[in-house]
């Protein structure tokens, strides 16, 4: 999934990692012959690449980023009370990850361009920011969705 570079940090080996707007990191080290990114070695070079787009494979596999905190959750929905908006294609906004929690029954989760995922009782699935998706009950189901973001460091 296309993500924007919003900052940088260094990992434990002092290699530069780009912070993406999905809260994933991606290494941008310069290794001649392997990764030709001389820009990552200087502060000026890194600054010049802020706002550039990288392809985030971790979003593609719905990997939940580290360090996020839940800030809101929906009521528990059943097959009869699922809001219509969830049955149609929709997205969470930039900066918000969703996590579907199935309490009982069976729910189909359909992230756009990917295989449909069947969630059973006590299973969860992650929803990356801005990824089109919808859900559908398969028989009876009880589930809720929790929303996460990265706490702002003061
Ligand atoms: Zn990502």
Structure description:
The chain has 154 residues and is mostly beta strands. The chain has two domains: 2-60, no CATH class; 69-149, Jelly Rolls, CATH 2.60.120. The chain has three helices and ten strands; from the N terminus they run βββαβαββαββββ. The protein has helices at residues 43-48, 57-60, 84-87; strands spanning 2-10, 16-20, 25-27, 53-55, 69-73, 77-78, 97-111, 117-120, 124-127, 133-149. The strands form two sheets. Strands 5, 6, 7, 8, 9 and 10 form a six-stranded antiparallel sheet that branches. Strands 3-2-1-4 form a four-stranded antiparallel sheet, with no helix packed on it. Strand 2 and strand 3 (25-27) form a beta hairpin. The two termini are 29 Å apart.
